[in-house]
Predict the 3D structure of the following.
Amino acid sequence: MKKYTSYFVFFFNIFCLQAQPYTTQCIDNATQLVNILVNGVPFSNATLSGFDCSTGSFESPNPAEGLNIENGLMMATNAVDASGAPFGSSSVETDLTQQLQIVGSSSTDVNNVIVLEFDFEPNSDQIAFEYVFASEEYNLYTCDQFNDVFGFFLSGPGIAGPFTNNAVNIALVPDPDNPGSYTDTPVLINSINSGVASGGTGNNYYCDDIDPNWQEYSVFFSENSGTADVSYNGFTVPLIATYSVIPCETYHIKLAIADVFDGALNSAVFLTENSFSSVGLSIEADSDYGAFSGDDTTIVEGCFDGALEFELSQQIETDYIIDFSVSGTALDGIDYQEIGNQVTISAGDLEAEVPIVPYYDGVVEGLETLIITATTSDGCTEVESDYTFNIVDRVELFLEMPDDIAFCPGSESIELDPLITGGIYPLTYQWTFNDALFSNQDEITILPDNIGIFSFTAQDLCSSLVFGETETYLLEPEEPLAIFSSYDQIQVCTEDELSTEIFLNGGIGDYEINWYQDGEALGVDSINFEISTDIASDYILQLEIEDDCSNTISKQLSIQILDCFVPNIFTPNNDGKNDYWFVEFGDVVNNVRVDIFNRWGQLVFNSINYERCNSETGQFCWTGIHMSEREDCKDGIYYYNIEMTDGRAFKGTFSLFR
């Protein structure tokens, strides 16, 4: 459009500097451009006409503050990279020219024309795509006679419009009073704007001429306040271009835009990526448990339900019916609520669902499956698709708490880690210490000064709850650990009875007992035990004691097992050698009775404590003197009789020589 005042151009340049720019990439390949726009609709024969970098892709850094389109296809009369287009480059575009004539434009001279067109086969009875129209002319030349123009011209079976090949322009203004319905008015600067006229005429004539209700359409307009992500002065809200078609037939669409009269101020159309589609059906499995498991196909008996969700890409005027069948190891109406074999999306609605409600039966059955096979059509081909739900048993929680904990003086910290099985994860936890909140973790570290009761609660996602307690207390000994023994060293005869005589005192808790003989473990874990005296030997017994707080103490016993014997000769002649009749009994023998007789049977010596006989001094020993006559006994054979308190008895003879 021709503009007469440099003031407006200067104003726009300042305005552009304030905008937060979107990012663009020039694309001059028609097929690449259509691939950005089209979603699931077969297309062919894509062609593009325009100038260098007049088309491309765009991405908005902050859609909510601008176009409200995140990314897509862009067609701009000043080039998508804002590098500028050929100023006023004259072109011919029949449909755009005719559109200008229809709306009563004073000029049909178009330039900087961009046309992207292609054939396609819809797979349903409706096509639709989303777009935004933007222009630098907004608010400067509203209701003026020289406005830039664009259109989406659709042709094909069943269409009889005024444009080339009987095409119709489907870029129409929505009916603000009837959402989903459209007026016959094309989207232009003079049809969707702020509702206030501006520019050279200063009146509403050119807007009224297009549509007397044009001011009601201001709800579809956004003015660039300087924070938008594009540099155009104004733009529409995201609009939908849609039209009824015959499924599986071939249609042609032409997307066109141009400057009118001159190229001083430019315009663009932004088309949302993947928005060009027939009415399609999307099917998605969903589970209440998915937010926790990350899996939208797992459901839990009596706890987490699921659903198979069906959604149309746009509304239709009749019911949309989907048939399905069920299979799998789970039984319909027994393991889950009966679901039937059909679901309907009512006319005017977009979605419906099949609820999957698994029953809780208290029986551990393992993983069960429900397979829903949905039969759908893309308008041309019937397709069967399987959707599998995994039904998980709801297993009740089980808790095993750690045993009560006894702290020893000087102990380090201890981990409390309850054993939890079953349940539907994740779990929530709570520890209290003496009724005060302590932690929300599954395990805790406690210190020796944490003396009291630790209470633990765990709850799963299905509200199964378990509770347990562990008590801590401090062990303090009344007395230090000590070992007492009736002897430290001892001599006994072979075959004598001998046992340890140990007494323990003090310490904390139970004792760990270990006996060693000359450093070798005996495997004895009792304090006192019988000692074998079968073989004469000398050795050291060592007792090691450890209490529950690792306090230790040890005790050594020296054991000498003698091969006790009765001498068969002795010579009491006071020469210092063998002057006493000495019998080796060992230290543990008491009250040994000895009777000695001469060969005529006369008792010559008697003692009831002969174990007291001292081999060094002769004290308490027989020295060969007659006990009654107090005279030396004569040389000869003598008889002895020895009796011990344990019942053993010995008889025999020995010779006396002087």
